[in-house]
Design brief:
repeat; alpha+beta; five-stranded antiparallel beta sheet; GNK2_sf; 363 residues; signal; GNK2
């Protein structure tokens, strides 16, 4: 009898231990299970890759900025996953949220190859398709607090101004985080708080467009005059309310700029025993010497061109002067027979004077 009770107790203990991780996971704010790319089984290669991928995300300690984009497998069995924490959530809370999401998502979507789940502080998504580099997607859901503003027009105007300014700030984030929060006074008694975030690997203009679409949709279409609204998709999400629901943004270390390649050319590694400053000095000398030589070469070419033009101009002037002299000479030349007739065959009566080699006569 005691043995039977002990066996039952042991079985119940095992059941509780294995069931607790699933039962204790909070419900998603929203989730989507998509079987357009087919289904999988736990023992299939896709199922094994998915399990490995979700384990890699929760055990990753190198990423401290809350954005994970990992891939496991290849061809038809590849699994790509993206996980994102809210920008004001510290690492320990982020790790807990994403761990809950990895367990919950396989519960609500037990065999679909595409799935996404949202908590208030994190999001998890996986797919066999390439979901990296943040393709722009429509909003997936929008929830309200079912509290109406006393003056919807004034409230919406203040929210629109605040959220539009924050959208630009969020879009200008870096590859680790695109996130912004802020607040504004609606009246002397009402204050509104806003939060916006995009997937960090989305382009700046795509992030901005996604946030603007979300703002316009929540203010004009679904939730006009609502005091509190939360809307999100896989690309971006927004939230605003009349109470402060966020913390200060987690401070990230400065993002190191990638090393720039040397200008103009890259020399092969030095074969001498000297390295370090010597190689750098050679590279800088060549890089700065090339534009100097090019500048001097241009000066030489322009100078030669100028001198050549000047020489051609001088020769042309000389030729014109000779032509003019030749023309004058031609005009003074007379035919011999004409002169002979005019001087009466060089008669002595017409002679005016004589030199050693010339004779002057009257015509």
């Amino acid at each position: 009898m005691n043995s039977s009770k002990l066996h039952i107790f042991f079985c119940l203990t095992i059941l509780v231990l294995f069931a607790t991780p699933t039962i204790c996971q909070p419900e998603f704010t929203d989730d989507i299970c998509n079987d357009e790319d087919g289904n999988y089984t736990i023992n299939s290669q896709f199922g094994k890759n998915l399990h490995k991928l979700l384990t890699n995300i929760t055990s990753n300690t190198q990423i401290d900025y809350g954005f994970y984009n990992l891939s496991v497998g290849q061809n038809l069995d590849v699994v790509n996953a993206v996980a994102l924490r809210r920008g004001d959530i510290p690492t320990p809370d982020c790790t807990k949220c994403i761990r809950n999401a990895t367990i919950k998502i396989t519960t609500v979507c037990p065999n679909q190859k595409r799935a996404v789940g949202w908590y208030d502080t994190c999001m998890l998504r996986y797919s066999p398709r390439n979901i990296f580099k943040g393709q722009l997607q429509m909003l997936a859901y929008a929830n309200t607090t079912h509290r109406k503003a006393a003056n919807p027009e004034a409230y919406n105007h203040t929210v629109s101004t605040l959220m539009t300014r924050l959208a630009t700030e969020a879009a200008l984030g870096d590859s680790r985080r695109k996130f912004a929060t802020g607040e504004a006074n609606v009246s002397s008694t009402v204050r509104v708080y806003g939060l916006l975030q995009c997937i960090p690997d989305v382009e700046d203009f795509d992030c901005l467009n996604c946030l603007r679409d979300a703002i316009n949709y929540t203010l004009a279409d679904c939730c006009y005059g609502q005091l509190g609204v939360k809307a999100a998709g896989v690309t971006c999400g927004i939230r605003f309310d009349t109470h402060r629901f966020y913390k200060s943004a987690v401070v990230l270390p400065p993002l190191l700029s990638p090393a720039r390649p040397p200008p103009f050319l890259s020399l092969p590694p030095s074969t001498t025993s000297k390295t370090g400053n010597t190689s750098k000095r050679i590279r800088v000398t060549v890089a700065t010497g090339i534009p100097t030589v090019a500048f001097l070469l241009i000066i030489v070419i322009l100078t030669a061109f100028y001198l050549k033009r000047r020489q051609v101009s001088s020769a042309k002037t000389l030729y014109e002067e000779e032509d003019e002299e030749d023309g004058l000479g031609e005009s003074l030349r007379l035919d011999f027979n004409v002169v002979k007739t005019a001087t009466q065959n060089f008669s002595n009566s017409n002679k005016l004077g004589q030199a050693a080699l010339a004779l002057s006569t009257r015509v």
